[in-house]
Amino acid sequence: MDRPSEFNQYLFHEGKHFEAYDFMGAQVSGGGTTFTVWAPNAKYVSLVGNFNQWDSGQTPLKPVNEVGLWWVFVPGLGEYEVYKYFIVGPGDEVHHKADPYGFFSEVKPQTASVTFDLKGYAWNDQDWMRARKIFDFTRSPIAVYELNVASWRRNPDGSYYSYRQLGDELIPYVKELGYTHIELMPLMEHPFDGSWGYQVTGYFAITSRYGNPRDFMEFVDRCHQAGIGVIFDWVPSHYCKDAHGLGHFDGGCVYEKTDPVLKENLDWGTFNFDYSRNEVKSFLVSSANFFFDKFHVDGFRVDAVAYMIYKGMSTSRHDLFHHEELNTDAVEFLKELNTEVFKRHQGILMIAEESSAYPLVTKPVSVGGLGFNLKWNMGWMHDTLEYLEMDPVFRKSAHHRLTFSIAYAFSENFLLPLSHDEVVHGKKSLLDKMVGDYSEKFKGLKLLLSYMYFHPGKKLTFMGTELAQFVEWNEWEALDWHLLQYDTHRGVFEYLKALNHSYRNLPELHSIDFEYDGFKWNDVDNSQESVISFSRYDREGNALLAVLNFTPIHREQYWIRVHVPQDYEIILSSEEKSYGGMLESIGRVHSSFEAYGQHFIAMELPALSATLLKPRKGR
Question: Are 75 and 28 spatial neighbours (Cβ–Cβ below 8 Å)?
Fold first, then answer.
């Protein structure tokens, strides 16, 4: 009922109010609802909705101060009231805007905000939240299942799954597959499905496509009770131009820059945020804290970081800016963002989708870093996919694409992504990228997944990878679930499950991902046969041996140099029969021998295969 306090006003306009959702937007209380909006260029602001017949003269907002805050209390107004702001700009033009701080929205194609009281949900994830505070991501397995809610599954009539349906089916499915986290492509309110959620209008509103905010709270709660973390795609780089959104909010440039060159991202047809403006910083950092605070999400994948920090990243700006010209306002914003969210929410993940070579992305702000704790390893992804899309005849000349990633693997805290971006727009599905005949494509996919899980770095795969889809991802349709009735596709599903469980249960594969001590080449130079082998270590010095054959040639008695003279037994092979391969069983012991002053084991190496071995106890 009270107008914004002087303290809240001060922090907000100084760019230091990082929980502005507690007083901005529509705050439902017992006696009515308080509305507060920032419109610094407006001549007049009023509230319109069904409750006043959309009459712009009935519920005017009052100016709170001289720098753009407007406020009104509406007695008796509760939840689920549809509303917009009617704004008269400096040129007397009229704008009908959704609430930038609104907690809920009408279902598309309608665009109004909806009042919603976030209080009152009874959380049951206390054990998870306590454990999260002491979670050490550096020593823990992180295997992420990325999905687009609209196209994971659909109801028989083609309608979307609700958040509750998603919880019923996704949680046990992901748990069976062995993933530690799910990553949801953006669920902040957005008008166009084809943007996949990356062109946002509601930075505090969970999309109404699948239910209301309490439904999403329940979904996260159920994930946590099942031992699954929830990562949220978050888009602080740009926003859509739709008339009801943030663009030209009050007739002037409020959230976007005034400079016509810098205000737009012409690649995506969107507006760029103005990180130099204090109220925009309060808005964005508050948005981040909002989802950690109110929805208990466990991390963000921060989209398009390179577009934020480089002025010339957009292809349409190369003539105006050097590619490496920094947006220093964005750099400082990211440092402050990470500082503030980690201060309030211990144990969360802040993951940068950053495609450049900008240094120190995952280093602390105190030493000049951006302060993220993980970064997508786009270099590993591009090099590995390009290598596997090559005819094996030519792979010997591109061997460096397979091995170069280790040269920089420990320069940042990397996550290895096989994401949605790699299976759309004519790039083909992962399975279809693989060369060779029908059976070789499946071998190649299992080999790709093996290299990812054996290589240092946390893991991410996109939905449908486990089904070995032949077709690209289509955001308008559900996945091809029928494929699991076929043995070859079921084999990939079972193998990815085995990879996840091995990765989680074997500390050698996850406990030293970001240090040289966790990795050592056994053979890096065999370009002629396109075979690599390396060892992964845990913090007690225990080792596993990974051997990968990237040619369709079956090799008998292949010699592999080992660092310690021991017997080795196979614990996982992509060519096991249960995974669609030809080997009846595994576990065969291979004894080491000495030759040329070094120690070796000799083993059968199936074509296009990956093998994981461990030293046998007792010798």
Answer: no
- Contact, 600 vs 593, CB < 8 A? yes
pLDDT under 50: residue ranges of the chain: none
Q: How many CB atoms lie within 10 A of CB 295?
A: 20
- Separation of alpha carbons 269 and 265, rounded Å: 6
- Token code pair at residue 206: 């969970």
pLDDT digits (tens, 9 = 90+) for 144-158: 999 999 999 999 999
So which residues are the catalytic ones? 303, 353
Superfamily for domain range 516-615 = Golgi alpha-mannosidase II (2.60.40.1180)
- Closest to 40 measured CA to CA, from 100, 112, 83, 114: 100
The predicted structure's pLDDT at residue 319: 54
DSSP characters over 425-446:
TTS--HHHHS-SSHHHHHHHHH
Comparing CA positions, the residue from 102, 121, 113, 98 lying closest to residue 295 is: 121
Best CA proximity match to 377, nearest among 312, 267, 456: 456
Query: Computed from CA positions of residues 59, 60, 62, 63, in that sequence, does the dihedral angle turn out positive or negative?
Result: positive
How many C-beta atoms surround the C-beta of residue 99 within 10 A?
27
CB 141 within 8 A of CB 507: no
Considering the segment(s) 6-114 as one domain, its CATH architecture is Sandwich (2.60)
HSE of 618, CA atoms in CB hemisphere, 13 A: 6
Using the structure block, give the residue that is written with the tokens 């093998």. Answer: 611
| CA dihedral (132, 137, 142, 145) positive or negative | positive
| CATH code, 142-260+271-304+377-509 | 3.20.20.80
Give the CA radius of gyration of the chain: 27
The count of residues in the chain is 619
Same fold, 142-260+271-304+377-509 and 516-615: no
Element containing residue 613 per DSSP (H, E): strand 609-615
DSSP collapsed to 3 states, 136-188: CHHHCCCEEEEECHHHHCECCCCCECCHHHHHHHHHHHHHHHCCCEEEECCCE
